[in-house]
Amino acid sequence: MSAPHPVERGDLYGLVAEFESPSVLVEAARRAREAGYRSMDAYSPFPIHELTHALELPKTKLPLLVLAGGVIGCAAALLMQWFSAVIHYPLNVAGKPLASWPSFIPITFELTILFAAFAAVFGMIGMNGLPMPYHPIFNASHFALASRDRFFLCIEAKDPLFDLERTAKFLESLGATVVSEVEE
Amino acid sequence: MTERRTGTRPSILKPGHTFASVTDKISSIVLTKKTPAFWWIGFFVSFLFWMLFLGAVCYLFARGVGIWGINVPVAWGFDIINFVWWIGIGHAGTLISAILLLLHQQWRTSINRFAEAMTLFAVAQAGMFPILHLGRPWLAYYLIPYPNTMALWPQWRSPLIWDVFAVSTYATVSLLFWYVGLIPDMATLRDRAKRKGFQILYGMIALGWRGSAMHWHRYETAYLLLAGLATPLVISVHTVVSFDFAVGIIPGWHATIFPPYFVAGAIYAGFAMVLLLAIPLRKAYGLQDFITSRHLQNMAKIMLATGLIVGYGYVIEAFMGWYSADKYEQYAIWNRMTGPYKHYYWSLILCNILSPQLLWFEKVRRSPLALWLLALVVSIGMWLERFVIIVTSLHRDFLPSSWGMYSGTIWDWSLFLGTIGFFLALVFLFIRFLPMISIFEMRSLVPEAEVAGEPAASRVVPETPS
Amino acid sequence: MSQENRSLPIHPGGESPKYWRSLEELAGTPEFERFLRGESSEEILAEATGLDRRDLFKFLGVSFALAGLTACTRQPAEKIVPYVRQPEEVIPGGKPLFFATSMTLSGRATGLLIESHTGRPTKAEGNPLHPASLGASDFFAQASLYGLYDPDRSQTLTYLDEIRPWPAFLGAMRLALEAERPSRGAGLRFLTETVCSPTLVAQMEDIAREFPAAKWISWEPVNRDAAFAGARSFFGVDADVLPRVDRAEVILSLGADFLACGPGHLKHARDFAARRRELAAGGPGVRLYVVESSASVTGANADHRRPTRASEMDAFVNALAGALGGSGVAGGGSAFANDPFVTALVRDLSAHRGKSLVLAGETESPAAHALAHAMNAALNNWGETIFAIDPIEVKPGSQLTDLSQLVKDMNAGRVSTLVMLGGNPVYNAPADLNFAAALEKVKLRVHQSLYQDETSVACHWHVPAAHYLESWSDARAFDGTASIVQPLIAPLYDGKSAHEVLAAFSPSPERSGYELVRATWQKQMKGDFESSWRKALHDGVIGGTAFAPRAAKPAIAKANPAEITSEPLEEPPSRERPAPSAPSSSLEIVFRLDPKIYDGRFANNGWLQELPHPITKLTWDNAALVSLATAERLGLRKEDLVDLTYRGASVRAPVWIEPGLPDNSVTVYLGYGRTRAGHFGNGSGFDAYRIRPSTTPWWGSGVELAKTGERRELACTQLHQNMEGRELVRAATVEEFRRNPKFVYEHEKPLAPEMTLYPHYPSDTYAWGMAIDLNSCIGCNACVVACQAENNIPIVGKDQVHRGREMQWLRIDHYYGGDPANPQHFYQPIPCMHCEKAPCEQVCPVAATVHSAEGLNDMVYNRCVGTKYCSNNCPYKVRHFNFYHYSTQFRAPSMKMLANPDVTVRWRGVMEKCTYCVQRITSAKIDADIGNRRVRDGEITPACAQACPAQAIVFGDLADGESRVSKLRRDPRNYPLLEELGTRPRTTYLGALRNPNPALKVAVSTEFPSTELDRETGQK
Questions:
Q1: Angle at C407 (CA atoms; ends C402, C411), nearest 5 degrees
Q2: Which of the 8 DSSP states describes residue C504?
Q3: Which chains touch B (3 or more CB pairs under 8 A)?
Q4: Span C671-716, pLDDT tens digits
Q5: What are chain A's domains?
Q6: Which among B161, B400, B407 has CB closest to C845?
């Protein structure tokens, strides 16, 4: 296995190791974490929960966002119906009370769901920083297979422990089939 | 945690598949250059009916709803029948993708994608009728709450306005849910597409998805939350639809049993439609490995269960009609069974209650052909159910002096068949340009996807937060 | 054309031209289409055979001349008044003016007040000062406005289909007269309808003076021949009778439909309803027996109805007269002698001497009339409940005899000039006279009429008649009261009144109707003519012109039925009178006037064509009515097509089942099957005149009925006339009412006001409400058409009615009860209930129907998007939907003028319904505000209530405890319809009372068994 040819430090994004199976990747991630690497990320064709632990990823704030969305939707719906039926244009309809709360429930419910759903989807997309047409990792060789059957672990150059030589060796030792440099 | 599915019962994914084989098999259907002949034929036929639909709509707008068979007292006919029918069909998709997900039913994986697509297309058909059935469709925007100088707002006590919100919310959330599910697969297609155009197209839809661990983490949370939201939503939608009738005072409509029995009926009809589509598709594209006989049997069982609930609904309806001691209710039920529309009622009983009893036999459940035919019968039966509920209740209400008869005209039928063509055309476009099975979820079913002795069973289901 | 197009009333909307500029356009020939599209005349010439350039220009010239003509005919140029100097009293777009005039039908006038908006009449109301109206009106009067603006009216004076100017006509008549002069008019004949106009009579006398040999014949298919013959044989002289229903406690109608049509029916209905209300008030009230061979509104209101075959009527009357015996009436014993009905009837009548009344209908035999008079004599009713007066008609002879004579003369070539003023003898003369063929033999034939009808095309000259709202005339009411007919608008199409046409035969042919009428009355009015003339015009009646009752007590000696029947009555070849023992299985046919389009003259009147028959609820068609038993025996079902053959002639008619007809008797209505009535009249129904012989004009036995196996769909607005045991109409006998005044709540409790979850919306100003007294309502349909006229309600055509899309805001439900062989009838007018908790409002997604502060259920057309949910959720189904753009019919130039400017014309796709005539409420409130006062009770009258002759509908303010409607609300008979639904209707009903003879032990029952009637006629 030849030593990676040198490149200027500035435009190096990191080192990417390619693995054959999810188990190896998870193991590699855990070991890298133990070795003290922090700024790294793993890429897989399907969600692997063990990876979340191995990389000790933080819990996402998404659920709170969704809750907020739901509450806003609920309030907005009730307010709209109450304001229009009681304040803005009160009408005697079928001799029912102006504020016919029971009749307001269905719409309130629907809008609650709608706003919450928006929060969930756009929250996820936003937190993930998508859409992101370009990302250095796409430069990695074979990365197209990350959406098929290959598993990748990338240790980024900005990591304090990062050292081209040692990190590359370390990655190979984890059972990577290929280790390659990725440019910015 | 669900127990491992192996051995005795047919598995949900034929053994021997790898990440690669799964990925290639499914994506190839989309990425292949040449389109199979049956696709062209099928699409062409449904396209013709789609055009029939457009013709019927043009004539409708030109002349008015008078071209239909509706009258006073039966002021709702095919328009609302079709609306309820299509909405009901939509429900199975959401149920499969949301409720079965929450219930850890991993067998849903291979059918949820096109079940959701079917939902969208069915809701699209349904969503048109509330506008088409208006006397003055160009004023449909009156139904939307928008601030205006007249200070005129919708009338929040009307079930129809509830419909507007329920159906539009349902359509939106289903679309989002479907799209979120598509993102990773779009990335796959982006990476595997040969032609530049498709790479760019799929790339844009994929939003630059790269499968990073943190992304997957948030993705699954969002997906799970969406499922949690969609589940009450799908139930609420048909409940609201049933309010169109239950809130009215017409004998035969004014019944509290309607919401649950409409929801059950919706799922019932929905699964029938899924089977109607799935059975030919798996045959045509040789997807028997992914949509196995086990899937079909499970769906058959769900149909049997919901069918029984619907049957219970009919019984309670009749019982309550009698038990209410309300002479109008009693007459309404009696009129259904013995009046001028009795044939509709009894064939509905035959289609929806009696014929599904065949599903008790495993032999039937194992035969795709039998299932397909049964699904067809049930779909017809569910349409008849809506006809019976709407027409037989309206045509004889309180004052015998205003009693009347109803029957659909050529334009009613054109519109109905037209929407079926429209629906199928959309389905054909979908299977040609989008992966009809969720690739990334199928990958997680491949045995080697298992990590450190953890079963693949719950791949797409994050463990309870700790 | 797809059926939708057929279904829509094409005229005056659709493709066929309203005004045609040439026969080609009328025929819609392709050449003309292309000509319209402006293609070069060469091309057209190339094809239009035998039309060279010169002819083309002639034809164009005529076309454009005519185009100009139509353009200016609506208001003759010299009369157009620009509002530079605004005419007195006229407020453009503001308040309408009302003018008094009179409408004449079969020689009897009804006084009307016509509503005029800036010069165009839009609505007819009754004239309270006129004895035949008393403020009420019938649907003929209401619909006459439609007749005025009917685009199918004849619009040009023609000679053999060529347009001619009026002077040309005058000239031609001059020549004809000169030709007649030597023979002193021996070949001159005038044929009019029944005439009661003093002016016309005067004109005729003038002509008679000049041409003593000329003859004047009157003919109408409905005439009073039998009545006059009967009167003659009883009184020895011609006489009309004047019944006083208000004084009678027991009334026996022998086939007399005195409540619904015939002389003075509005007054009779008013009096009858008043006596019915007396029952509730504890007074003696009235008991009505009806013996009839068909079904009539009067029969439907009877306390005891006795279906009797026409062939047995005379025997029945004989038996009755005999049984009444006493003063001079000697018995004619017969099968009916010891009939319990007769016995009870006789006892009841005898118990009410001087307070009873026996009436014979125009369709009964002269003998029946004579015997009716005799019975009244025997009961001392003359001078009490019935009076004899001089005949209203100038020629009280036998029209049928005169007409037969005329036909003989024509056939013998003795008639050289025949002038027909109105009427349509070619269509409605008895078939066997073969009038059309005889007419051919007349050298000069002139016909003046509103339409280019069957008779017009058989004549040389056709003169478009002026509508009564376009012309000056005068007329007499049933009691002789004279009134002036004044025009509301200049003739739309240069029509000429009968007076103006007759003037052509007088020394001064150019005299206008105005001059003629004034001249007549100048002679008769005492004192200052101008002022009494103005008063006459203003009041609509000429005071003191009513005929004085004859000295009562006629010669009882002549009242011996034996004599009466033996004495030769002046009538055509004596009608064969089969003995009562005639095989009752032999089918007999009964001819009746159509209760909607009369003798056919209103066949093109959309409002009347679409008006549901008062009993069968059929529209747009007539049918062969048979009883249930007969239908069963002959294996007939509703809508079966059968061939009716009588005396060699035959017609093809659809069957309809009407319980309560005598068995083995077929009733057919005259007036349908027109061929030249116009868009609506042509081809609707079948022509029963074709089998109506001159010998027995009203019935005949031995008709053959053959099934064809085909069916014809009939448009019925009420497929189900069985109450299904639901308490919709609540009725009781007087005894039951006395025992339990709250009988309407026999089976359920009134819904307590506090029994609701919803708040009470107190009415700050007014609380409008309506009470409908089912005890008064006679189901005459006047309110339905009045509502249609007031609220610009479009007609929709047969196909749409057949689909259940009729638009009348107010409908009258009709239900059967009791014995299917002889059912009791119940009527229930259904306007919007204006529910306080309205189900329709709750379900409207756009708040297009909401509640007003005064409790009106408002319909906001602009906001309506047409979900139709409100109609579905309305328990009373009073909402009507514009499935198509029905209101296009108001786009025809003439129909535009018909529309009421105070009421929106509705768009396609909009829901509409009764508004309690909100436009009238509003204008009354404005007046009240100006006067700084509250609206007074009775100040607002909805169109329906205003037309109602029975005063069954009362509208008013519920917030005012003293208003009539509030008082009726407190009446024990008051109940809301479907109260158990908690809709809290503002419209409530008062239970009906019947006053059966205890001896006959007939209970009032709204229960009706399920019968063949309930079969679904395949409404689309």
A1: 145
A2: T
A3: A, C
A4: 999 999 998 989 899 999 999 888 888 988 889 999 999 999 999 9
A5: 9-59+133-183 (3.30.70), 62-127 (no CATH)
A6: B161
